[in-house]
Amino acid sequence: MPSNNFTIKQLIELDACSKCYECVRWCQAYEERKDDLVAPALRLRAFRAMLKAERGLPLLRRLLGGRKPDGDELKAMAEGAYRCTLCARCAAACPNKIDLRELWLSIRQELAERGLHPNGLNLARDAVRKQRNVVNYPNEERALWVDYMMEAPEDAYQRDRAEVVYYVGCVGSFSPAVQSIPEAFVQFLTRTGADFTILGAREWCCGFPLLVAGMRQEMEVLKRHNVEVVREVGAKTMVFTCPSCYNTWLNEYSVELPGVELLHSTQYVEKLLREGKIRLGELGQKITYHDPCDLGRNSGVFEPPRAVLRSIPGAEFVEIEYNRARGLCCGGGGDLEISDPQLAGAEASSTLAAFEATGADVIVTACQQCKRSLQTAKEKKGSKIRVTDLVELALQVLED
Known about the structure:
- 48% of the residues lie in helices and 8% in strands.
- It is of the alpha/beta class.
- Helix 11 crosses helix 20, helix 15 packs across helix 16 and helix 18 crosses helix 19.
- The termini are far apart.
């Protein structure tokens, strides 16, 4: 079944693997499962063989011994492809600079078109189609978290026109475990005098869960709506506390909004700090930073959060051994919680243990999903380390 899911560059990259298996050494999913079809290099080899067997000339297939995989083999390949957080540690480690994350996305698109994706992803797709959010709650309740704040304005931070749009995202909007993050950020924006709005029910899912499921075509209606709403608001800046939303807007939306600056919340806080518009107060604790995969490796934002943390007087900042491009994944990405929640939890537990070994009092991250995953692992273990988001910490130490 030929398809157009792979670019010419990707077809070349499929043959560029030198079988050094460096990617396998850095794969946290393989470390937990030891499953050959989870291992990046072996996964790549299996799909390369499949595509060659299906697309090559018949005579060439016979000469090379190529054959189409049977149903059980295809199913096993699909299970391996979706037991992945798309964290891209493998891509960062690849000596041949193969863009493995983009290859995994194209492979998932190929599998989804064949109906080989996990059934749980159909539920996510249907939820987005019906409710415009991935958790299948009424989208009219997207800003319900504001009702639980002690001092919220009558307009619930929803204004018709504003200089800044704060795009909250599905997890921050609907997951009680991390709604403290949007609560903290709207308070931070208010205290720093920003002319901002949240979109409430006008905000629809950015499409990231569908993109990583291999269902890119499902994003188009979401993209058209979200872009039109931002244009109506007249915003010059968009800010995100969700790295996955930020990454999706950066790569999939930005061409539709020329002149609109897209910033992650860590970049926004660092910019205010650098321009002398805010000042942070004392914090007498040892802190460390967790690089969210979609913010760090996949969007290239490493230094702004560190600049903020290092500027806090009295705080002792320590780096974990694996940081920046080699940073550890929380286990919560790539729709892994839908396809294999046990594996997602195992990755979160291993990452938590690595951060505990730093001796830090606080793990600071910059992602709702990362905070939720690490917090769940912390509670399961009974760990004493505190897990917080950078915007929560910034609000805590913000001086008037």
